[in-house]
Each structure stands twice: as structure tokens, then as C-alpha cells.
Design a protein that fits this description.
single chain; about 1550 residues; alpha/beta; seven-stranded mixed sheet; 50 helices; 50 strands; about 35% helix; binds iron/sulfur cluster; metal-binding; cysteine biosynthesis; heme; metal ion binding
Length: about 1550
Amino acid sequence: MASVGVVRTAEEAVARVAYLSSDVVISVQQTLGQQSKYSAQLSSLSATKTKSVIAQADELPEIQKIRHSADPLLSVHDPARSGKFVSVTTTSSTLISSIPHLYKLTNVPVVLHVSMQSEEFPDYADITSIRQSGLIMVQSESLVDAQDMAVAAHALAIRSGKGVLHFFAGSAAPGSPILAVGEELLNEAYDKVKIRSYRVREGRATALYSDDGVKAETAELVPSASSTPAATETPATTTASTLAGILNGLSNSTNPSSVSSETPHSGASSRLSVSSASTIEPPTTTRSVTPDDIYKYAEDIFETIRITTSRSYKIFEYSGALDAKAAVFVFGSTTDLFRKAIAQAEAGEVYAKVGIISARVYRPWFGTRLPHALPKSVTKVAVLEQIKRKTTRWGPLFLDLLTCLKAEPSSTLSKSIVGYQLGYINVTTIQQALRGVVQNLRAESPVQNLQVGSLTAPASPSADLAQPEVETAYMRILNELFKERLHLANQIHSKNAGVAIDISASPEFGYGSLIARQEKRQAFLGKIEEVVKRSEFSTDVPEQSLSKWLFVANDPTKSVAAAEAVIKDLKADGSDLAAELLKDKSLFYKESQWLIGSDAWAFDLGNSGVHHVLSSGKNVNMLIIDSQPYSEKAAADAARRKKDIGLYAMNFGNAYVASVAVYSSYTQVLHAMIDADKFDGPSVVLAYLPYNKEDDSPLTILQETKKAVDIGYWPLYRWDPYGEDRGDLNFNLDSERIKDELKAFLKRDNHLSHLVRRHPEFSANLANSYGTEVRHQQKRKAKDSFNKLLEGLSGPPLTILYASDGGNAENLAKRLARRGKARGLKTIAMSMDDYPIEDLINEENLVCIVSTAGQGEFPQNGRSFWEAVKNSTDIDLANVNFSVFGLGDSHYWPRKEDKIYYNKPGKDLDKRLHDISGKRMVDLGLGNDQDPDAYQTAYAEWEPKVWRVLGVDNIEGLADEPPPITNEDIKSASNFLRGTILEGLADESTGAISASDAQLTKFHGTYMQDDRDVRDDRKAQGLEPAYSFMIRCRLPGGVATPEQYIKMDDISNTFSNHTLKLTTRQTFQFHGVLKRNLRNSMRAINKALMDTLAACGDVNRNVMCSSLPQNSAFQKETWAYSKKISEHLLPSTSAYHEIWIMDDNDVKAQVGGDAVQDFEPLYGPTYLPRKYKITIAIPPHNDTDVYAHDVGLIAIKSADGGLAGFNVLVGGGMGVTHNNKKTYPRTGSMFGFVTKDKIHLACEKIMLIQRDNGDRKNRKHARLKYTIDDMGVDVYKGKVEDLLGFKFEKPREFEFVSNIDTFGWIRDETRMNHFTMFIENGRIEDTPEWKMKTGIREIAKIHKGEFRLTGNQHMIISNVSDQELPRIKDLMTLYKLDNIQHTGLRLSSSACVAFPTCGLAMAESERYLPVLITKLESCLEEAGLRHDSIVMRMTGCPNGCARPWLAEVAFVGKAYGAYNMYLGGGYHGNRLNKLYRSSIKEEEILEILKPLFKRYALERFEGERFGDFVIRKGVIKPTMEGKRFHEDVAEAEEDDEE
Ligand code: SF4
């Protein structure tokens, strides 16, 4: 129950009534990020769980917030048609664009509460324009009025079953509060019977655009027509010609000259709107609601209000003298002002005895009642209409009054109705206005259409339209591309004197202004032609440049230079003529003219600016931003389809059309805008920018965009109707990945449209049901084929269903099926979602194996099955024996309250199958990752029970099961890494390669991945995952020439996702390469004299080297050893060359590395047990994390400053598995010093010991770090020394000061300059905000030195000579590449790729760490830590590609949005960190870190690093060696739940 408090504004009062009277309130807002004048009240009622007075059971009203530009009234339909009472709170500025919906709301009890805009001086044209919509219209003015009329509006809607529009003058500022209306009034006024009957009415249509024939009806018994007063009073004989006659008469008396040119069209339609002229239906028990019914309802409701509140209202309200001779009819926001002025008038005042009348109910127009509302003495009526911009000669209200008063047989008002345009009036001008009105009214020949008051009013701040911040992405591109040539016609906030801001932002206004602008320029051209002939300049220079300009004036590009030359010459000339021309200097540019629109334009194209522009054929460009997220769209009713502006425009045949999405392809947006600008005719660029709220993160927008583009909801294309005339294509589909699917869709669509044409009764939803049916048939077919296969077997049947995300449940199910078959059972195994659910009741023995996803959810391939089983009411498993085995991790969610998620799907399924009468043959089995052998422990007990129950446990002579295929098998059978890669590449039926080839291609430097952002959606669409490949280059020491860099940039643009990734191991990585582009990419890399051989796989990978050339000669000498080691340990197989480089004709193609023989002297046919990584660090910078690699080499200087050799660390490594304590990160153990000439041999021998002793059975235990711990450091070292034939020397002295990069310029001893650029997380890309990629390319074009990649994913522009320096610096400034003014935390941060491409990612990393840092930065600023370096790293999974275990603060992904947090790493990368908290989300991360940073700022010792501080303060224990990583963690683990 809503407590009766106070309300301060009309909007507040109205919102409260709307909430209390509705099931659904649509709150229309300028932006979703800010409250509207209604929404604060709505939110507060919702927050206090206030119920509405019409609520069903315990349901609370639903508040739907919708942007004003998102066609808000569309949202009314679904709830309204499903029997809900819906109200809308909005402003009058949405009405015109909602016209297409209004008439559809006539026969549903929807209430639209509309506050008039602008608040200071509303324009009632917004109301008169929609007066024919069929809605009942009620108006109010003051706060009290607005509250009462809000109640009346809802009561009317309920009683009549019709849509009601309540319009009221809004509140510019809160006024004196009034008591909020009590619920007793609402209960009294609302007809409960009608409410119930509306809710249960059956047969409502669901389609929006079909006429479902629903009419508002009343069930009252109707007396005979003759007894209905209104019917008898209806001026049914008044015709259009009568009205024309009246108007002619009027015109004759006032302005004879204009009569013949006036078509009384508006008058005629106005007459038709006289609702009481409607034919009365014959009396039946149910009949349509008539205007007379509405009149009666309104009177009843007003009476109820009077009884409850003592406030009285009438349909027409008259005040003033009862013997008044003249009356003023006011239609606007100042009726009260007029009333008061007359009431206070002194006796002699000209208007003292004038009456005021207004219509409380504006539609239906009860004109026949009006004469009865006026005193008989009134002979003259002034009609004041507050309409700012008149479009017809006679005002709509004037015509309404004229019709009814003149038609009144006893009318004394002949020739005495005078229309006025009512402007802005306030208390200081009201008297003068009234005098003017009355004097004119009393004149012998009153002037019609006199203006009263000013047509402009003080600006109202609340009328400001906001452009959502996110939408500026496209504006920036337009600005960037067209610079001074850009002209935005209807940009919000543009200066359009005298025009309301909502109008100036409308398409129609923009279009009109563009046409005017084009005409103006045309005239300007003519003027220049004249001027050139006249020779009136001071010199003849301007004439010459103007002549030149005239030649290119209409060329968008050439006119820029010519315009600039002209402007310069005119300025220099100084003559009057020059000054005059300069006033219009913008016209010298051939403008790129754009109209900016929203997706709301799509709803009624025929009436919108889009249509006008297209049909005009003018050279106008439209940028239409669609912001509806794909997910929202997908979730919405399919029938609510917006019209496709693209197709609409293409059908016109004269327009350029492009569909673009900045978060999918930035380059395509550029192309489309440039094309549109060049196109001589209308252009439509549909731009996608999906967001729910204005403050949505770019990541959310990016993910929504990708889903929409990938699934084909938002295809990227460009259409030029004249493309073929120029030998190009008309249609370019730019979203390549869906090309085939789109083709298939188009074919299907064609087929369906034929079908629909033949059988119009089929709905447009046929497409949906078609897809569903196909999927169903596929399931059926798969099951039938299985059954066929089983026909030969004689044992009892066993059906095994699995749901699995990671593959464990699937593998168990398949193994169980193999074993079942071996025991003679008729066994089938399939994923739950592939199983036809209707067969379930016929099963005999059913086994379900299900793993746990997310927060206790079913895995993706079991969700539909579970929904069906859970919700079905007709599945009876009385004849089915079942058992369920679940897989989970009892420690995955450490908090007690989250324990319920442990094995939840398994438990739920077991219970449900039992509830629907299934017989449990074996109790639920629960596999737990925490058990000694993980889930296998429980499984080993559970499986024999199944065989026992089925009577097949003691079968003699069971054949041995084939062992599973391991990576070792794949390697040894691969013929030196060939496998069937070539065949897989040739297979065009899939974007993937086989699983075993996917293992082998890693050795060639490429991983198969799929786009995780769209995985679920594609699956739901029945598509294979969006496969693509990551390619990693081999680049020892991370050094590339500018030429090589440009080639990398080209490859990224041509074959990958237009970005370049600099990795944590100093190389270039490409993402999103499609299978068909894989070979071409590899060849292009080869042409850049690089390769990808051994960049991944179980071999020695890219060898790293500190890249900062502080001591240039020493760095150079050391770097040469990284190259030498890399080449020394390169695999020798020629498979790489064969598969990727050699073409059919050219056997001589050469790879950068020299791999020509099929013999692996170092590796042998099975290569290494796992990857092998080597890095070199040059003290004092540990910028390659020397402790984190299998082999870490610390470069040691000789006495002469040259390279003496290296201290060798062995056994570092990062990857672990969550909750598996047998896995841990490890820092390398010091073996000792080796001279430089033998270092490649030392690396080789260390590798050989690992090759022969590493664990080849368990890949989680196969890295060198485990071999060395299992064997003992000294033993390992001894074996290496045996192979080397010499001992490691004592390690030499060295000192590290940090493991981060040194940003900014440095100058080396050879006077060359080097700049370390900050490239956040190594991603080089262009965005609308920052053209970083373009900038680096521009530098590469002129740079003569090198680019060096760092181990922290940044880049050094290296070896810049002093001569080169100014140009490079200029470019850096131009492209903002010299910005290193970030916080110390950001500069010291690093994240791995993770989503969307990494298949192992459990959480975001590269896309999220920058966001998290931003949220921490204010706290760092406050604490005075802005410049303090704190090493923070994040990875999406515990594989640890960004080496998180060495950071002072680290986050490792556990599940989407949840991370394990680690603290206490050594600042120099020398000490591992330790687990501080498990599975925490952003909120908790901030809660922990903010106070900790503050403490650090206050309590640290001089120079103490954060990692050391948290240990000293006892926040975390130090990790002294890898084996102790899991000990003494900060968070005590909870006991198992059971
Ligand atoms: S750490 Fe994990 S999520 Fe990140 S890139 Fe490496 S494997 Fe992928």
C-alpha cells in the first residue's frame, strides 16, 4: 500500500497515479542513465515494493525504461494485448513520431500521460496534430488538476476499454507540495468488473501490424436510440459543404481575397472528428463503446472525484459572469492565468465581465454540449490556441468550435467566433493580452488569427535533448574524415534560431535545412561566376583563384585545397567584395552534408525523413544509428520487427546504402562514409551501436555488436546501385564470416516468400517454425540412425545422455558407451540437446552424465533438455530405470552460500527424474575435482554398480579397450608434423581442422580458436562455432625492421581482425584469421622474412631478449645470442615449408628459416613432452621475467664491457590448474655461469634432459619445472653437465631493479634515440577515439631504425637518429603516441588475450584489466600513489600467459566475471605471489584493494615495494619456492558441504 505523502510536481503526481493503476509502466526517457521527471517517483515506488491497486495476486507493476528515440510506444503492445494494464509516462515531443502506433491503441485501455513541452511555453500543436487518432484526450494544467485527471484518465480507460491520452502542462520547477491522492479514490473510480473482464478476454491477436479486430465494447443494455440524448442532438446533417459555407462566410467578412485559395480540408476533417456524429450501433447486449458512453463515463468519474475530494470537474468548464456577453475559449497552458486575471479585474476593465471556457475532455469532441456550457447571453467567443507554428490558416480548435456553435439551431453566435494564436503570456502580460483579445472580439470586423503574446519564451533548461555519449563514436569519425567540409544538419545542440530544440533535431527539419543550404550554395556559385567577370577586387589574384575554384567547386576533395587558396587570397585582398565573400566562406567547401537519425526512423518509413530524402534524389547523406542490442532484439517478440531501412532504401534504386558497425569493423565504417560522401544522390549509412544504458562499457557494446554481426542480424554491407556501371560490384558483403550462411538464408527466405504468397494464412513466423522443425528432424534422424546401428545387438538397451562444456562428461559418456557395447548392451550416447525428448518415456535404461557450468548451471548442450524435463507436465518415466552421474568441484566456489552450486545440475536432474516416476537403478554419483583422482574417484565406484544392475558385471573375455589417443600418439604418427593438415585446409565444408591436426598446427605457429563472444548464439542458431586461427610469429628478441612492421600491418588488415597483438613473449600475433586465409597469411609472413615455425607447440619457442638498448652495443651483442639459440634449436622438419610456403608450381619457395630435411636430430619424432621457453634478461632490467621460463639467461658483462656469458636459471614456469595442488608456478633455479660461446649448447643439453625425462603421460606434469623438482635440482644439473662435458661456473654478480618497461625517450652511447611507447596490453588497433595503428604505420613509413617489442607487450621505436627525430616526434604527437602520462599502476600492468579468442579463457583479461585499473585510479590519486609503480597482471585462466604469479597483485580468471586474487610477488619478478582470495568479483576486488593501497601509501617504508609491504604487514605470507605455493594461503578453505 502506497503511503499517502506529498507530491511536488505534476509529473511526480502523475507517475504515482500511473504506477498505482497499472501492471506495466513504460517510462520514456531522454537517456537511460538519467532520471526523467517521472522516473524517480516510479523507481521509488518500485523500490519500496508498492503494489498497484489493480494488481493481480502479489505482482508488482513492472517499470520499463525506454529511450525516447527507441520508438517507445511499440513496447505498449505486447503487455496490453496480453491483458495487462499499461501506462506510458512521456513528453509531448514523442507524440508526432509515434503517430503510427497511436491509432492502434484506440481500443486498448492504455493511458498515455504526456507532459507538454517546452515547459515554459508548450506547443499544443503536438496535441492537435494527433486529434484524429481515436484516443480519448483529457487535459489538465495545475498540479492538483494533473493528479485528479490522471486518476480520471485511468478510470476512463478501464470503463471504456479505450486508449486515453492525458496531457498536462509540466512543471518547470517543483512548486508547493500537495497531498498525494489516497488509494480510496482510485478504488472508487476504477471499475473492478471491467478490470477482471479485460484481463480474461480471450482471442487477443499477438501481431502488432495485423488488425485483430479488437474493439472496445460495453456490455450494458442500451435503450432505444431515440432516448439517447446525444444521439438526438448529433448534428448529423452538418456536412463538409456546410462547413465550407461557414468558412466562406467568415472569410468573406474578414479577408475576401483569400477565399478562393483556401481548401477547407482541415475544416472537413475537423467536422468528421466531431465524435458525436458517429453512427450509433443498433442496440445489442454488447456493442462498441460510443462517444455518448464516454461522455457518461467521464461525468460519472468526475462525480466520484467530487464526492471523494470535493473538487469538481466538467467536460467543458466555464467560469466568469453568468450574464457574460463574450467568452474566451483557451486551449493552452495558461487557462488558469486567464481565469484569475478576469476574477481579479476591476469593474471598469474591458474584460471584467468576460467568461473563460476550456475543454477538460478534448476528444471525443462533445461539440453539441458546448453551447449548453456557455451562458445564453454569450454572443461572441474568442478561441485562443497555443500553437507555435501554424501550418493551416484556421486553427483546429477554432474549426471545432465553429462547427458546433454555428450548427446549433438556436445559435446567437453568428459571425462572432474569432480565432487567435496564443503566444507566451505570464502574469505581467496577461492583462494586456486580455485587453487585446476582447477589444478585437468586440470590433465590428474583428481580425482573425491575431497573435496574442510572444511566440518565443525564456529557454527551458529541461527541454534539452541529450545525445548519448556512446553515440559520439560515429560523430568523431565523421569529424575526422570530413573536417571543415562536414555539415550536420540536425545535430543536437546545433544553433537553429527560433526553432524548438526537438524540432531542430528532427529529420524533417534537417532535410529542409540541407535543401536550403544546397540552394544557397548553388546561388553562391552563380554569384562567384558573376564576381569573376566584374573585376572589383584590389588585385587580380582573387579572380584567378576563384576561377580555379569554380572548376573544382563540386569536387569534394579538390575543392578543399582550392577553397583554402581562395580564402587566403581573399583575406590578402582586403577589398569590400572580398570581405563580403568571406562572410560565406564555408560555402567554398563542397560540404559533406549529413542527417543524423535514430532507429526510430525505421518504424514508419513512409512518413519519415528517410522517405523524403530518398524520393527527393538529392545528394544528402543520412547516418542512422541503431542502438537496439541484438540480445534485446532476440528476446523480443519476433512480430515486433522494425522495417529494414536498408532494404527500403535499396528498393528505391537511387540510393547508396551501407550497413556498418564501428565495434566490428572500423575500416568498413570509413569506407562506407567516404563512399556515401562521394555518391551523387541520397545515401543511407546504417550504423550499429547497441547499448542498453548510456554508460554501458565498450566491452558490452563490442560483444553485442559481434553477436549481431556474426549471426547475421546486422550484416555489414555496402550497396552502390551504379557499381556495375563502373565495373564494380553493386553489393559488397563485408561481414565475411557469414557469407555462406547468409546465402543459405536468402535462398530459404526466397522459398518461404513463395510459400507465404501461396498460403497467405501462414504467418511471417514461418521462418522460425521452419528452423525449429529442421532441428527437430535432425534430432530424430540422428536417433534413428543410432537405433539402426544397434539392430544387431541382443542385450538390453542403455541410453547414455551427456551435457558437457569442457569435454569430461562427454568423454566419460562415450567411454561408458564403448564399455556397454563390449558387454553386449544396445548402447547409444548422445548429448542431451540432440536427443528427441518425446522418446524419453520409451527408454528402458537411462544414464545421464552431466557436468556443472557457471553458477550451478547446465552445460550449453543440455540446457534445452533440462528445460523440457523440468517444465514438462506429461513426461511419465514409470517404465524407465535411470541413474545420474554429476561432475563438479566442491571448492570451486569458496563461500558457504555458494556451496549449493556444487554439482547442482546432477543433483537437480536426479531429483527431477525421480519426481516424474523414474526408477533409480543406481544412486546419484558425484564426481569431485577435489578427490585424489578428481571426478574419476567417485566414477570408479559408480560405474560397476551400473553394470551390476544391468546384469553385465561379470562378463568373461572382455576385449581390452583401446587406450585414448594422446598428444604423444599424435606427434609420433604425424610424419614430422604433417598429419592431415593439408587435407584439412582444403576442406571447405567447415572452418575447422581436425582435432589432431589442431595439435600439430601449433608447432607451425598457429592455433585454432573460436570466437567465444558468439559461441552460444551460434550454437543456438545451429551453426558451427566461429572458427578462426591465431598466428604467432617467431621473432627472436622481438626486433623487426620498419618494412617488416608494415608487412605485419598489411597482414592484419588483409587476413586478420585488423588488429596486431604484441605478446608477452615479444612477438607479433594475429587473431581471427579464417582457414581459407591461413596459407596466404603464412606466405605473407614469409615474404616479410619471418616465419612462425615453432612459435607454439612442444618445442623450443621464440627466444626472448631484453630489448631496451640503453647500452646499445651490449644489447646488440646479447640479442644476437637470442637469434643464435633460436635457430640452433629450430625443428628441422620440412613439413612447414611443404604445407605453408611451397605452391603447386614453385618448388623453390624459401622459408625465412632454413628447414629442409625430414629428420629431427634434436627432437626426434615425438619432439618434447611440453613447450620449452628461453629468455635473456640484461640487468638491471628484468623486463623479460627471467625467472619465469624453462631457461632464464642473465647476460653478464665482461671487464671490457662486452658480453662475457650468462648466468643460467633452469626450471621456471607459470601454468597451473585451479584447485590442483600438484600443479604450481615455479621460479628458475640457478645452475651457474656459462660463457657466451657455449650458451646455445647449454640450452640444448638442458632441453635434451627434459626431452628424455619429462612426463609424457600427464601433460599437466610435463613441464621442465616438474621434471627438475622430481629429479632434484642437483641431479638435473649434473646430467646437463655430463652432456656438456664441463661444469657450470659459479654464478656472476648481477642486480635487477624492476621487471617493467622504461617508458619515454632514452639516448644510447652511440647517440641514437629510442622511445618506449605505452601500448596497453599489446593491442595495436584503430578506434574512433585513437588512430594508434595508423600512427605507428605512418612512423614505420619514414623510420630508418627498428621496432623492438618488449616482454611487457609494449614497443620501442628504436635507433632514431637526431635527423630523424623531429619528424618522428611530430608524428608521435599527431597520433598521440607520445602519451605516457598514465598512472604507475597502468604502466606496470599486463594482461593476456583471453576472451574472445583464447579457447582456455575462463574470464576476461585484456578487455577487462584496463577497466579495472580505471576504477582504481581515483583511489591511487587520493592516496598520492599516482606515480608509484605497482606490478599488476591479469590472465583469463591459470595457464598464466601474462606471468601473473610474479606480479605484486595478480588476478587469474576462475569463471566469467570472477577471479582468484594473488598478492606478494617480488617487484623484480624474483618472488612468486600467493592466493589471497578465491573467485571474487569486481566489487570485492575494489573493496580489498582500495583500503590496501591507502594503507600502503601511509605505512610503507622508504622505497618499499607493494609486494614486500603486504608481506611485512602480514597480509600475505611469502612464497619462497614453487612447491610451497599452495601453503599458507590467506583464505582458509571451507569444509566440504557433505
Ligand atoms: S592465460 Fe589462459 S586465458 Fe590467457 S591467453 Fe593464456 S591460455 Fe588464454
